[in-house]
Amino acid sequence: QVQLVESGGGLVSTGVSLRLSCAASGMPFSSYSMGWFRQAPGKEREFVAAISWIGSTTYDGDSVKGRFTISRDNAKNTVYLQMNSLEPEDTAVYYCAVARRHCVGLGCYGSASDYDYWGQGTQVTVSS
Questions:
Q1: Which of 1, 4, 81, 112 could form a disulfide with 20 if both were Cys (CB 3.0 to 4.6 A apart)?
Q2: Half-sphere exposure of 46 toward its Cβ, with a 13 Å CA cutoff?
Q3: 48 near 38, Cβ under 8 Å?
């Protein structure tokens, strides 16, 4: 049974950094690509970043380019999201997700429908 557990969220002030973690179990972690999405109240789930199963290719959503970085440690079955220069607009529940198919290109990972399993989410709140 695939389980994804996010952690690292919290309440922070504008301009600070946070690192989210997502620990995976019940699956061959190094065989699957991983993604981060977020959802603010009243809004649709938004693509944040994705990383290929090898870790050599990453994709970033337009709203976080240059501020957020996704990475993975296959030895620890964990994917990370380093978030710098946080803004109130980044306030949302952040979810990690697994994409089982092997595919190349942002078109493979930019939609929630590209993913097969989801974590329960972690809240990030950025105060102004």
A1: 81
A2: 18
A3: yes
